[in-house]
Every structure is written in C-alpha cells, then in structure tokens.
Amino acid sequence: MTESQESGTSRRERILRAAIDAFARGGFHGASTREIADRAGVTDALLFYHFKNKADLYLAAVTNQLETLRAGLQSQPEDAADIHGRLRTFVTVYLTYFLDLEPGLTVTLRELQGVPADAADAITRVHHAAVTRRLEEILTAGVEQRLFRAINVPVCALAIIGILQIFIRAEARMPGAFARNDVIAQVMEHYLPGLMRSARPD
C-alpha cells in the first residue's frame, strides 16, 4: 500500500468514526455531514469523495458497528452441543455491544423507519447476516439435537431479538432501571422453557 493509499484509508476511517459518534448522539436527521466533516478534520468535499451522500455514510457507520458485533459473537468459544450456553453467550454479547461497546446501534436501529428506504433495507440485511443468522443457527441446532420441539426458527429468533431490543430501548430512556441479569433471565428462564421439547408435545 502506498503512502497516499494509507492516507486515504486513514481519512475514511476518521470520517467513519466521527459519523458513528454523531449518529449515536443525533440520529440520521439530527447529525449533519458538515458536523461530521468538522469532527473528522476533513472538508465536505473529501467526505463526499469517500461517501456519496449522507445515507451512504449512515449505512457505512451502522454496518461498521454490526460487523464489530458479528466479530464479538464469533470470538466467543463455544461447545457446539451446549445449546443453552451458546444462547446465553449470544444474549450476553448482544446486550454488551448495544449497551456498552456500540451504543450508537440503539439509536440507529430504533430509527430505521425514518431513514431512506434503500439504506434501511440494507441495514436490515446486514443485521440479519451479522446477527440474526447466528441466532437462527443456535436455534436450529437445538431442534436438530431434539432439545427444542419443532419450532419456527425465524419467528423464535425475531422474538428473542425483540425481547432484547425492548430492554435496550428501555435502558436508553431509563438508565439503570433494569439489571442486566434480569434481562438475560427473560430469555433464558422465561422464553426459552417454552421452546423445550418437554414443554408440550409437538
């Protein structure tokens, strides 16, 4: 890589980090490209050289955070046979990234209905590929191991993520109102038992 290429990569990364911070604070509509350019120490022209418009920059910022979450989920050592352990790890890591490591995700996923449709659709696809698919793999393995009854895996995955997102959004409005372990218990001790083969006949 040449010096100019490295410089371009560095500038793009600065813009991206500034965008993640700005969108986390103001959302798509509350953050301006001028603010982002200023925070990144670049001109407007240079920002639009790397990102064709605000929606493109927003998509890049959210995708970056989701890929970080994907890496976090993939980095956890797992026993393929331990479905309960894998699900608990998923829930714990998901909450950790949204609440502690990438809090901008809470803002960006909450406001998907208000961003340009192309960007919203792309973010939904990235979230599925980076996050939901992993959860579906865990649930499918539970069915194959006959731990879970015959379940609709995509619907169950949507329900689990929905439970987590309810608490993530509540935390944004009322910080500290819910203990992290109580949130995890909602999935592991209240929702999960309904999936178990022993819960009721298929």
Number of strands: 0
Helicity range: over 70%
Structural class: mainly alpha
What is the number of independent domains? 2
CATH architecture group name of the largest domain: Orthogonal Bundle
Per CATH, the superfamily of the largest domain is: Tetracycline Repressor, domain 2
Distance between the termini: 58 Å
Quick overview of this protein structure:
It contains 9 helices and no strands. It is mostly helical.
Q: How would you describe this protein?
A:
- This protein has 202 residues and is mainly alpha-helical.
- The chain folds into 2 domains: 51 residues, Homeodomain-like (Arc Repressor Mutant, subunit A), CATH 1.10.10; 141 residues, Tetracycline Repressor, domain 2 (Orthogonal Bundle), CATH 1.10.357.10.
- Helices cover 75% and strands 0% of the residues.
- It has 9 helices and no strands.
- α1 crosses α4.
